[in-house]
Amino acid sequence: MRMSFGLTFRAAKSRWMVNVSQQCSHGSVGLFVPPSPPLDPEKVKELQRFITLSKRLLVMTGAGISTESGIPDYRSEKVGLYARTDKKPIQHGDFLRSAPVRQRYWARNFVGWPRFSSLQPNPAHWALSNWERLGKLYWLVTQNVDALHTKAGSQRLTELHGCMHRVLCLDCGEKIPRRALQQRFEALNPTWSAEAHGLAPDGDVFLTEEQVQSFQVPSCAQCGGPLKPDVVFFGDTVNPDKVDFVRRRVKEADSLLVVGSSLQVYSGYRFILTAREKKLPIAILNIGPTRSDDLACLKLDSPCGELLPLIDPH
To answer: Is pTM beyond 0.85 here?
Structure first.
């Protein structure tokens, strides 16, 4: 699979040009969705039976559920960030210690935000929201920071790693909507322009060091402290209270379905271990192997948005 991306932002005219071209020899259903085998009707029936027997279903989602909405993930074969580039995600410690790192991050995020924030839920998000509305889904835990479950109407939801649509002051803890910060960026950088090639999983793009040097980053309007997205960066840890809350929801559930996660990150994998301790049946829907395939009673390799709408939650 060969892909090219073009993204240009000119602040003075608030003008965007997005060019995405794709040549795909594997018939992938989307730009960032890895190749997968055709749907197996017998596997679909097995998942239907799993869902039908579940009375208190907990679902945990990962980046694989959002690739069909146009958000790349990190680990997917051929199309994930690690497969396409040698780029690495920002580290929590680097962000805290270094003003230049924060400047680079926010410049990239500023350019990528209009596209990232405009992305919409796909049929998999809508299916899970419908399951909740009909009383089938007991709780939803997402490792994603894209707010697509919220956009789809999910309410019984824990955003394990936070949400890119909120911004946090590292000094006073004040939180503001990310869209409000975009306006402050624009006011501080009226003539700044950038051209980027490549899209990253968490709403930013790739820029050169020269491009970011003149980018101005606002401080907290309340105390003047540094601002950070209200998300868990790599190298950070999930709030212990949130971990305890999710662990209680797992213990209250009678089954667990993983959707679109390789479970390589321990912050999500720990809840699989909790489910195993409780002897809960575990089903996994993910293209490619996961860390917990040997613990699952059912494993399906299909695009989430193709399979979940086929399941009758009644």
So the answer is: yes
